[in-house]
Amino acid sequence: MRLNLNAKAEGFYGMFNDFGASVFTVYLAASEEGWVYVLYDCMDSLPSHLAFVYFLTLIFFLAWLVKNVFIAVITETFAEIRVQFSEMWQKKDVTLDEEFGQRLEKYDDGWRLIRLDADVNYEGPKHALQTVGFTLLFNLECLIKISCYGLRNFLRRGIFKFEMILCIGSSINAIKYFYDRNYFTYFQAFRLLRLIKASPILEDFVWKIFSPGKKLGGLVIFTITFVIIASAISLQLFYAVPNLYHFHTFPQEGWTDFVVEVLRATDDKLVPFVAIYFVAYHLFVTLIVLSLFVAVILDNLEMDEELKKVKQLRAREAVRDFYEFLFLLEQRKS
Fold first, then answer.
1. What's the CA gap between 77 and 58, in Å, rounded?
2. What single string gives the DSSP state of each residue in 131-159?
3. Is 32 in contact with 63 (CB distance < 8 Å)?
4. Distance CA 259, CA 121 (A)
5. Residues near 92 by Cβ (< 8 Å), separated by ≥ 6?
6. What subcellular locations does the record give (predicted)?
7. Burial label, 149 (beta-carbon count in 10 A; 0-12, 13-18, 19+)
């Protein structure tokens, strides 16, 4: 028995009724967030092996291959930088016993799955003593710098002010009352930022990415402005839709569920326009805005190379002008 259901009853998933519905379905499947729902609906109407082959091919070519082509270009750009930091950022091996709560053990009668329900604390008071010890060393380093530079000269440098604030926050975090409540744990974690200042290569790399601040800051302001404008427009479009009790910001991971909820609540005549609106917003954010951030960072990395080329050209022009000047002097003398 065939059920004649409309698009709202079907849920707008896995619909290939016309070209527009097919484009919307393919885009949902290619976005990696809604492809499983489309796959399940198509498995009910198509042979399961055909649905598996179709959607695996769709995910591979659209979601993985096409969208990640620019990642290969970026990876090639950062290849030399990654080689320099490969030894610094090596990941340590983690044993299975420490990471997982289940494991297989072999007995005389066969294999058994052992589950560890209790969390074993291997560190205990030792970890707290280590934390206090590092905090004392950090404070001692700050006191030595104050005694060497003097308090006024110490406070003139921004990095030293930052270290003093971290010392105060880390010292407060060493108190048991605040340590148990994690109020000042951020000061202890931010001490790692000093490693950027300690390594000239790492500091130069971070400076290249985030400088000059006008480009990245302007892009952040543009993104915030775009989100505010899009939220205001969306609020005016959908706040009066019946059976849609609230309008909330949708992240990339759950945007398909929210789109379907809005499509079910809107009028049938407005369904294509609502679908186009959300697809256009998702395309603009995931492809254009994110690519702008990547382009700004790459442009900052390439600035030093461009400056070097300009300096080399100016040096060549200066040498050429000098030789021409000498040649003219020789001609006048002769």
1. 28
2. HHHHHHHHHHHHHHHHHHH-HHHHHHSHH
3. yes
4. 45
5. none
6. Membrane
7. middle
Check residue 298 and give its pLDDT: 65
Task: Tell me the two tokens of residue 87.
Answer: 């030894």
pLDDT value at residue 91: 45
In this structure, which amino acid lies at residue 22?
S
pLDDT (tens digit, 9 = 90+) per residue, 178-194?
887 777 888 887 887 77
Task: Write down the pTM of the prediction.
Answer: 0.40
Output the 3-class SS for 2-61.
Answer: CCCCCHHHHCCCCCCCCHHHHHHHHHHHHCCCCHHHHHHHHHHHCCHHHHHHHHHHHHHH
Residue type, 262: V
Rounded Cα–Cα distance for residues 34 and 59 (Å): 11
Neighbouring C-alpha atoms within 13 Å toward the C-beta of 249: 7
Q: What is the pLDDT of residue 76?
A: 60
